[in-house]
Each structure stands twice: as C-alpha cells, then as structure tokens.
Amino acid sequence: MDKSEQENGEYALIRDSEDPQLGKFDKPLPCFGCGIGWFSLLLGFACPLLWYYATILYFGNYYHKDPRERAGLAASAIAALVFTIAVLIAVLVIFL
Question: Which of 76, 83, 91, 94 has the most beta carbons within 10 angstroms of its beta carbon?
C-alpha cells in the first residue's frame, strides 16, 4: 500500500513481513470477547467449579496460546484459592 492510499483514509493491514505473528491476536477472544479466564471468573460466582477449570488452564500454561488470557486465568485462580480457604474455614468452624 502506498502513501496516497494511506492518506485517503483506507485501512492498512497490521502485519509485518519480518514478524508473521504480529497479526496473530487480531481476532477477538472466545466467550463474547472477554476470554475464558474472565468469563470463568464471572460465572464462577454461580458455579465455583469454573474457577478450578480456569486454574487448571492457568497452571497448564494455556495462556501461551494467547497471552491476553493470562490476567483472567490468574484472577480465576486467585478466586479459587480464596473460595477454597473460605470453605475450609467454614468446615472447621462447623465441625470443631
């Protein structure tokens, strides 16, 4: 694409001939665009097993496929940890 086409307001591709992975993350994330991690975090309040699913994905290095998933998967792992500690405390209080 030459400069005259760019000046006319036409779109240019975000790809680099030296780095073919530059356009790799142009497509939207799954789960309505927010990613599996954030989607699991939100739905985990209704079904906490989704937090554990996201934790398995996080420790299984799923975010290497798409680094944008890392923050959401980490948030779900933290939510799973907090939930587990809360359940353990509740069980100890009830039975002791």
Answer: 76
